[in-house]
Design brief:
elongated, five-stranded mixed beta sheet
Length: 343
C-alpha cells in the first residue's frame, strides 16, 4: 500500500509538471502570436504592402523649343519600348534570346543591356529596344508570360520637325552617360532607362529647365513581379518651353541658300533688339538620329564628312574677318575722333 501511494504521488507530480509545461508552451505560443499579430501588425502589414506594391518613377514630358512665332522646333511624340528588370528576369541570356526570337536584338544592344545591369540597381528597368512598331510591341506583349522581367512601356521621344535646318541651334538629346551620372547623379530621373538629356545647342544650355519634375506610379504586382493593376498615379510636371528669337521661315530660306553653296553659314540679327533671327550652318545633321540612338556607321559618316556637318560654322568656325571687320575699325575711329562724320 505504501508503495502504491508513493507511485501515485510520483505520477501526480509528473502529471502536474507535464501540464505546467504544456501551459507554459501554450502561453509562449499565444504570447508570440499576440506579439506578431497585434503589436507588430502595422510593421508586417507595411512589409507585405511593400512586397505587393511597387512605386515607379514617371519621366515628365520634356519642354518644347519654339521659334519667335510659336512654331515647334523640338517637341515630343509617343513611342513604345521593351524594358527588363534584372531581379525578375532570372537567366539573363535566356531572356534576351527569347526576346530576340520575337524582335531583333542586336549584339550592341545585348552588350549595352549587360553593362547597364551591372552598373545599376537590380530593380531599375533597363531598356532592351526602343522605337518598337505596333506589331513588335504586340508580339512582346502577347508573350510576356514567357518573358520574366520583360514588359512594354510607352514613353515620349524627342522629335525635330525641321531636321537639319535647325540642328545646330536646337542641338539634340541623347542617353545619359557615366560622366553625366557622376556630375548630376543626385537626380533620380537619370536612372530611368529612356531618359534623355541635352548634349548640344539649346537642348544642352536649357537642359535643367526643360527636364521637368518626375511623377510616380503606384502599381500592384503578383509573386512573379508582373503588374496586376495601377493603384495610383501622379503625373510629373512638364519641363519649361523655351522660346527663341529665331524666325524659321527666314531660317529655312537661309539654309537653302547656304546648302546651294555646299559649306556656308549665315547670321541675321535684328538691328534694334539684337535678337538672332537666323543662325544657319550648312551642311547640318539629323538631330533625331542621336535621340533614337545613332548607329556606328552613321556616326562614322558624319565625322569623316569633309564638309564637317557637326561643326556649327556660324559660331565655331575660324575665318579671316575680311571686309566685314572694316565697320568696327571705322566705328572705333569715329569714337576716338580720328575721323568725323564729314571726313
Amino acid at each position: 500500500m505504501q508503495r502504491e501511494k508513493t507511485r501515485g504521488k510520483v505520477l501526480t507530480r509528473r502529471a502536474i509538471l507535464l501540464a505546467g509545461g504544456q501551459v507554459a508552451l501554450l502561453a509562449t505560443v499565444a504570447g508570440r502570436l499576440y506579439y506578431l499579430q497585434v503589436l507588430e501588425a502595422s510593421r508586417f502589414g507595411m512589409l507585405a504592402d511593400e512586397n505587393r506594391i511597387n512605386i515607379r518613377l514617371l519621366a515628365p514630358p520634356r519642354g518644347k523649343i519654339l521659334d519667335r512665332f510659336g512654331v515647334a522646333l523640338a517637341t515630343n511624340r509617343p513611342t513604345y519600348r521593351s524594358v527588363l528588370v534584372a531581379e525578375q528576369a532570372g537567366d539573363l541570356t535566356a531572356t534576351l534570346d527569347a526576346v530576340n526570337a520575337l524582335v531583333p536584338v542586336s549584339d550592341s544592344d545585348r552588350r549595352r543591356v549587360v553593362r547597364e545591369i551591372r552598373e545599376k540597381h537590380s530593380f531599375v528597368p533597363v531598356m532592351i529596344r526602343e522605337n518598337l512598331s505596333w506589331e513588335e510591341m504586340s508580339r512582346i506583349e502577347l508573350n510576356t508570360i514567357e518573358l520574366p522581367g520583360v514588359s512594354i512601356e510607352q514613353g515620349l521621344m524627342r522629335f525635330y520637325p525641321f531636321g537639319p535646318s535647325a540642328s545646330h541651334v536646337v542641338g539634340y538629346v541623347a542617353a545619359v552617360s557615366e560622366k553625366d551620372l557622376q556630375q548630376d547623379g543626385d537626380d533620380p530621373l537619370l536612372e530611368l532607362p529612356d531618359f534623355r538629356i541635352g548634349k548640344s545647342g539649346i537642348e544642352k544650355s536649357y537642359d535643367l529647365a526643360m527636364r521637368g519634375t518626375a511623377g510616380t506610379s503606384q502599381v500592384e504586382v503578383n509573386a512573379y513581379g508582373k503588374v496586376v493593376r495601377e493603384l495610383a498615379r501622379e503625373d510629373g510636371m512638364a519641363g519649361e518651353d523655351i522660346a527663341l528669337g529665331l524666325d524659321m521661315e527666314l531660317q529655312d530660306l537661309a539654309v537653302q541658300r547656304c546648302t546651294a553653296q555646299g559649306s556656308a553659314s549665315c547670321v541675321l540679327l535684328d538691328a534694334w533688339t539684337g535678337e538672332v533671327l537666323v543662325l544657319a550652318s550648312s551642311p547640318g545633321y539629323d538631330p533625331g538620329a542621336f535621340s533614337a540612338g545613332i548607329t556606328q556607321a552613321m556616326w562614322q559618316s558624319l565625322i569623316k564628312d569633309p564638309l564637317n556637318p557637326l561643326n556649327d560654322k556660324a559660331i565655331s568656325g575660324t575665318y579671316a574677318p575680311g571686309s566685314t571687320f572694316k565697320p568696327l575699325g571705322a566705328t572705333a575711329a569715329l569714337e576716338a575722333g580720328v575721323i568725323t562724320a564729314e571726313t
